[in-house]
Amino acid sequence: MATNYENQLGELYNTYDRSLEEVTNSYSNNKLNPGSNDYKKDVNNFNSVKSNIYKLQNNLQKDVDDTENNLIILNEQITLLNVENAALTNQYYRLNNQNNAAAGALVDQQFLYNELYAQNIALVCLIIANIGLYSYKTYK
Predict the structure, then answer these.
(1) How many CA atoms lie within 13 A of 25 on its CB side?
(2) What is the C-alpha to C-alpha distance for residues 76 and 83, in angstroms, rounded to an integer?
(3) For the chain, percent helix, then strand, then coil, each to nearest 5?
(4) Are 81 and 116 in contact, with CB atoms under 8 Å apart?
(5) H/E segment holding residue 137
(6) Which of 16, 26, 31, 82 would be a feasible disulfide site paired with 39, CB 3.0-4.6 Å?
(7) Any idea what DSSP says for residue 99?
(8) CA angle 139, 61, 126 (to 5 degrees)
(9) For residue 103, what are the domain limits?
(10) Mind listing the pLDDT tens digit for each residue in 6-45?
(11) How far apart are CA 43 and CA 39, in angstroms?
(12) pTM of whole model > 0.85?
């Protein structure tokens, strides 16, 4: 993702430098030959490059904001699952340590614990897949 933006920005800055040099050169020619259209064309090209740099900057900021929002949502989900997992783990250990705990209740608690553990693993995989998909889309 970052490399894609770095490459685009590098190309735009190279074009920016060339356009600025062309405007500088055509400015003096325009002062000597006021009827020349080269200066106007060079200024338009220069403004176009600046516009493309601003567009790229806006796209980059939008991607950063989108990623930040996605991470906030995922962090909230992970926090909720961790809280629930902690409560279930405590309940599991409480039931496991009781000598008189019913065998069926223990099995149910173990199942719930394993289910939440699997959900946590799935959520981590989802996070990794989301980051990979986002990176793939930005490099495309």
Answers:
(1) 9
(2) 11
(3) 90, 0, 10
(4) yes
(5) helix 103-139
(6) 26
(7) T
(8) 55
(9) 2-139
(10) 888 888 888 888 888 888 888 877 777 777 788 888 888 8
(11) 6
(12) no
